[in-house]
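Regression check, XIL case 339:
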Amino acid sequence: TNIPSVAQSQLAYFPVGTIGYNGGITGVQGDLVVKHFNSLVSENNMKWGSLQAQPGVFTYANADAEVAFAKAKGLKLRGHTLAWHEQMPAWVFQDANGQALTPSPASKALVLQREVEHITQVLNHFAPHVASFYAWDVVNEVIDPAQADCMRRSPWYLLTGTDFIDTAFRTARALLPAQVKLYYNDYSTTDVPKLACLHKLVAGMKARGVPIDGIGHQMHISLAYPTPASVNNMVRSLATAFPGISQQVTEMDIKVSDNGPFYASYEDIPPAVHAQLGYAWRNYFNTFRQLGGLIDSVTIWGQADNHTWLTTGSRAEAPVLFDQSLKAKPAYWGIVDPS
Ligand code: XIL
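Current build output:
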């Protein structure tokens, strides 16, 4: 149809990205991506569990297809993600007998060696296409504001302390050209305790000389939370604390609620709720634009409501811009025509 392109409508502000997934880059779904987005991130295919499920056995076909698609269609790429505690094969934190590693200098050295090996293999593999990448989520979701030291008790942390963070960034920086900026990426970054931890984490990395270029705000949010004003304050507080740091919205989607009630099927979601979602998208994008370059990329964690991680068997969500038949929703109009 003739409706305006989402990415074109934001060209003066930032690229607008979406996810690639198996089946998401072919046919009408691929056409939707090409028309409306100018940035792409792999939803799952560049995670450790997808690339190196078995030690030393690397599987690149799905990720390569997304990179080839992006290059052929002129979309820029975000890489996601090198070190995370989820979608990790168990072997990384086990000894040769399949027993869980316990903290010791030797197990720390082993896990860091595996991390360096993984990142090196992966970034060398994508090196021929690196000019198409502008960002890489190096480390994902390591903050736990319930801990006094702010650090999530993941196997990474329990076995290496914070060294896995520094090692990931240093290894990535040595292999990627400067135009590929390196991000720490997390969710709920507007939460007051979490934001305080984020400040502490980045300040510590900067003090140690760790090569971090940016912060990714996932923005898996809901109609109830957070307010656009708190997003504005959060981005400004980080920009003030870390002059020149890049900030990107990396995984945005909007649920109807954090805690229910939920809709059992997609058809149950009333037009009034779609309209509310439309106003929400409008208000957030107004905020991103008004931040005047402090947000330099926005990625939406879905192409259309027919494929979203938020919809489960008992819970239907309508968290992105196009409906289950790929038709533009009020969410789309809130971005493209906010007047
Ligand atoms: C999600 C994917 O969308 C799902 O398909 C998968 O089953 C789990 O991961 N934070 C992240 C993303 O950084 O990688 C996650 O993606 C969503 C939360």
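Comparison notes: The first strand starts at residue 16 and ends at 20. The two ends are 22 Å apart (CA to CA). No diff flagged against the previous build.
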